[in-house]
């Protein structure tokens, strides 16, 4: 009996600076390579840029530059590992909405990969996790990377 193997064309991974998201990134790179897919690396800032950072324009510019540099670093790691097409997105708004529906639908994502838990434990306790929202609302496959394994290779 032949086993059905899912082929993905566009893999999206959400990163938030947590060890879990780094593990998800590494797994996403592996899945992208195995499927000869393209990779979309996304970081979502919880609110609009003018509400998230201080009102000092220089501080906002510095933080946006830092976040874009972080995304560029992830992109370079993926390219160095052999991924042919890598796109990054720095978005502002609700991670639960943007990662579960808006970005995947707009970018035609067929696999979302996320860490089991993210960087913000307080929000997870109060509002539920972003991962839970993605699992409930995504219109494509979702792979949640657990924290059982240690050792993150970036």
TrEMBL record:
Domain UspA: 8-145
Pfam families: Usp
Database matches in InterPro entries: Rossmann-like_a/b/a_fold (IPR014729), Universal_stress_UspA (IPR006015), UspA (IPR006016)
Similarity comment: Belongs to the universal stress protein A family.
Name of the protein this chain belongs to: UspA domain-containing protein
Originating organism: Dellaglioa algida DSM 15638
């Amino acid at each position: 009996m032949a086993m059905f193997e899912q082929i993905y064309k566009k893999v999206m991974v959400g990163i938030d600076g947590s060890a879990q998201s780094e593990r998800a990134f590494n797994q996403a790179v592996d899945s992208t390579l195995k499927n000869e897919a393209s990779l979309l690396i996304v970081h979502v800032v919880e609110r609009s840029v003018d509400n998230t950072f201080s009102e000092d324009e220089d501080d906002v510019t510095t933080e946006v530059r830092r976040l874009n540099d972080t995304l560029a670093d992830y992109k370079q790691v993926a390219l160095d590992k052999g991924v042919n097409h890598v796109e990054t997105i720095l978005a502002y708004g609700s991670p639960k909405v943007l990662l579960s529906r808006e970005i995947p639908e707009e970018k035609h994502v067929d696999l979302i990969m996320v860490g089991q838990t993210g960087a913000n434990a307080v929000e997870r306790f109060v509002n539920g996790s972003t991962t839970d929202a993605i699992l409930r609302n995504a219109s494509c496959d979702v792979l949640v990377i657990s924290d059982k394994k240690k050792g993150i290779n970036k």
